[in-house]
Amino acid sequence: MKKIINNSRKHKRAVAALLLTASLAFILTPGCGARGQRPGRLQVAVDIVPLADFCSAVGGDLVEVEMLVPPGASPHAYELTTGQMRFLAEADVLVTVGMGLTPWAEEVFGKVDNPDLVTVVAGEAIPQSDLIPTAAYEEEKQAGREAEHEHGIYDPHIWLDPELAVYIVEAVRDGFIQADPENAAAYLGSAGGYVEELAGLDAEISEEVATFTSRKFVSFHSSWTYFAHRYGLEQVGVIEEQPGKEPSAGEIGELVDLIESQGIKVVFAEPQFSPRAAEAIAEESGGKVVVKILDPLGDPEDPEKDTYLKMMRSNLEVMGEALR
User: Mean pLDDT, the chain, as a whole number?
Assistant: First the structure.
């Protein structure tokens, strides 16, 4: 992440501030002084729903957030619209997970002509010691092969660990301050309050998971690696090692054998992908496991998952039903 300050935008802010001061006595009514109710809000482009919620929590009325990957879509294979490319060309801040979550992003963002864009890459904010290598990378490493990985060396689903989410929120805060230093105090205050909420969520999850009688599960892909690592659960297998690559009949058979040998009770599917493979595995297991839906992204249109905190609590409830 590099600091780039748009001098022309600072000049516009200064002019706007002078005009506002001159006219304040005549036009100010309750609520009209908020920056979010006049032109000049920080324009923020974000790749996925959870990070968009982090940006809204930190920026409040000072920011306008444009989500690039809409709810229900897979971030692994999304194509930006012309309107989204235009927004990127005029945005002040871009916030992405990085780490290969959106393999198309580097090429697409490189085409955007916006030299003043401040970029926040969430994966770069996480201490490397807290990052978990992908299973594919570990296999190649053990085989002594050095290879370039389309989806990165480390698992990118960092936001699903509330403790790692703190690093992301702080990186967003710092990015906003770089782009808009005049409102640094507001960003610092909002971020501090939200970090406290994340700490409360972390404690709540720890307490709830302690009641689980089963701690192993199979997931659609590696979304829940960080969550499982943080709270003492075990993601013993995944249906798709690479997003979009459906398992073969042989791989399904291997998963069924794994489920039987490990005493797995549940396979977690995701709303962004077809549950067909998960249902086939459950059927092959002779009805010994159930298929439940965990949503790693959330949905602003769903009142049960329209914020990160709600999404995580909703997923925790689903896990509890299956593992307690």
Answer: 84
> The tokens 């053990």 sit on which residue?
142
pLDDT digits (tens, 9 = 90+) for 74-128: 888 888 999 999 999 999 999 999 999 988 887 888 888 899 999 999 999 999 9
Fold of 212-323: Rossmann fold (3.40.50)
Each domain of the chain, given as residue ranges in start order, spans: 34-203, 212-323
- Three-class SS state of 46: strand
Fold agreement (34-203, 212-323): yes
CB contact at 8 A, 95 and 55: yes
Classify each residue of 206-228 as buried b or exposed e, where b means 16 or more C-beta atoms within 10 Å of its C-beta. eebbeebeeebbbbbbbbbbbbb
Q: How far apart are CA 285 and CA 277, in angstroms?
A: 12
Express each pLDDT in 207-236 by its tens digit: 999 999 999 999 998 899 999 999 999 999
The token pair at 277 is 């493979």
**Is residue 309 predicted with pLDDT exceeding 50?**
yes
Question: Which residue matches tokens 């619209």?
Answer: 81
Residue 105 near residue 47 (C-beta atoms within 8 A): yes
* Sheet of strand 216-219: strand arrangement: 234-238, 216-219, 266-269, 290-293
CB of 231 closer than 8 Å to CB of 248: no
Does the structure show a pLDDT above 60 at 37? no
CATH number listed for the domain at residues 34-203: 3.40.50.1980
C-alpha to C-alpha distance for 92 and 8, rounded to whole angstroms: 12
